[in-house]
Q: What sequence folds into this?
């Protein structure tokens, strides 16, 4: 075996039993190798199975099939030498900083003096000196996450797993902690050999990683690997940096569009059962306006747009996809471009907008058209929500059915295609034909 390989994830698959029977395939055919001295990024959208994979790697959870090998040995329980930093800091509120950090060491059965010394040195290393006796509630989010790092590092793990460790922090605090972490890593001060960083933030991945693995959704799978050969410290303004960020956006939108098309084909003939993202009509209108406005004038680079609107890709993608589904925009190669209809939508007043929207719903959202048809056909022009939920649940989980119906309710209201009363859970028509 290659002595450089710290960790080898081979053919890992993970399925969960679904409530109403059947199984949810979350990870399939996942391959990943972590080598000595590497930071590998796992980049994927929320729900793509990234946290599940980290739990499997750390031995907290078992794969349904496949193997995880750590330094040549199979992982079949919580692995010593692999530590994790979580998004939510997971600190004990009744313990001080020092006590929280020491906790990581208690399982190792070291003498009390050594536990204290190691904890103090981890605290010092990560910039928490002076806060040893503070309680978590006295600390800012950034300082709390430093405690999270200290608690993981204090065991001197070989591998550090990080599950979106910066995503709960404000922008400046997150950048500060990233840079501090990278400096320590570059200087060789961290007692670790390799890092796996899970994130849905593309720039963060490009800033920190040597390689980035792009994860698909449903099921999660590694679809592409992108090497990042830029020297440290990296500069977000550097054209080479920007170009890698662009490339990843392009890959992610391309993959995603491909997946949507495949899903459409699969559902052809029973189009009402396509799961829909819960995106409000306001966000849809807002994005059309943003793309139509200067400096974009109808066509925007998604990375620029995400930055400008201060959104995460997880927030932007579903809206962009909805625009694409409604044919108000096209997604291509990391760009979003308004269609003729999208441009008109941007120019017109609210009444024309509603008309455009309602026509798009009738043409491109089979579920919305279906609800409208049922209401048109019924003598009293009403129908209970449960009727449509039942239909959807034949094809998707109850949660997805609820989300899908909620999405369509919002859109239908905006387009005045139908109304919906939350108290009675009834659909109705305001202007039956
Ligand atoms: P990510 O971290 O990429 O956002 P997760 O790994 O948390 O994704 O979840 C991936 C999918 O697996 C989600 O659909 C989630 O609901 C499902 N999932 C995760 N853990 C469990 C579990 N213990 N039981 C059932 N489903 C689960
Ligand atoms: Mg997660």
A:
């Amino acid at each position: 075996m290659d002595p450089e390989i710290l960790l080898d994830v081979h053919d890992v698959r993970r399925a969960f039993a679904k409530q109403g029977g059947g199984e949810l395939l979350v990870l399939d055919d996942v391959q990943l190798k972590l080598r000595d001295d590497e930071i590998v990024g796992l980049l994927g959208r929320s729900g793509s199975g990234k946290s599940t994979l980290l739990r499997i790697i750390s031995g907290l959870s078992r794969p349904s099939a496949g193997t995880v090998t750590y330094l040549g040995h199979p992982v079949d329980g919580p692995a010593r030498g692999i530590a994790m930093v979580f998004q939510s800091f997971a600190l004990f509120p009744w313990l001080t900083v020092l006590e929280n950090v020491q906790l990581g060491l208690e399982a190792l059965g070291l003498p009390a003096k050594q536990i204290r010394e190691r904890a103090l040195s981890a605290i010092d290393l990560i910039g928490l000196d002076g806060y040893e006796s503070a309680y978590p509630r006295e600390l800012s989010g950034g300082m709390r996450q430093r405690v999270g790092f200290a608690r993981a590092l204090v065991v001197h793990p070989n591998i550090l797993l990080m599950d979106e460790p910066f995503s709960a922090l404000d922008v400046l605090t997150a950048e500060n902690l990233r840079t501090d972490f990278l400096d320590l890593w570059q200087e060789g001060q961290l007692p670790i050999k390799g890092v796996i960083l899970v994130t849905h933030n593309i720039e963060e991945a490009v800033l920190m990683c040597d390689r980035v693995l792009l994860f698909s959704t449903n099921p999660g799978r590694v679809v592409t690997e992108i090497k990042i050969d830029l020297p440290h410290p990296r500069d977000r303004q550097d054209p080479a940096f920007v170009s890698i960020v662009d490339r990843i956006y392009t890959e992610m939108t391309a993959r995603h569009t491909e997946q949507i098309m495949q899903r459409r084909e699969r559902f052809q003939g029973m189009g009402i059962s396509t799961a829909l993202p819960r995106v409000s009509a306001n966000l849809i209108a807002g994005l059309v306006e943003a793309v139509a406005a200067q400096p974009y004038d109808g066509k925007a680079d998604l990375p620029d747009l995400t930055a400008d609107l201060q959104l995460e890709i997880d927030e932007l993608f579903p809206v962009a996809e909805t625009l694409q589904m409604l044919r108000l925009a096209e997604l291509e190669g990391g760009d979003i471009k308004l269609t003729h209809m999208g441009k008109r939508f941007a120019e017109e007043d609210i009444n024309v907008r509603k008309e455009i929207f309602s026509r798009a719903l009738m043409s491109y959202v089979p579920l919305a058209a279906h609800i409208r048809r049922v209401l048109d056909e019924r003598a009293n022009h009403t129908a209970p929500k449960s009727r449509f939920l039942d239909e959807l649940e034949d094809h998707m989980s109850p949660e997805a059915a609820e989300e899908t119906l909620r999405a369509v309710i919002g859109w239908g209201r905006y387009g005045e295609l139908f109304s919906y009363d939350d108290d009675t859970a009834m659909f109705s028509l305001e202007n039956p034909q």
Notes: Residues 281-428 form one domain. The longest strand covers residues 5-17.
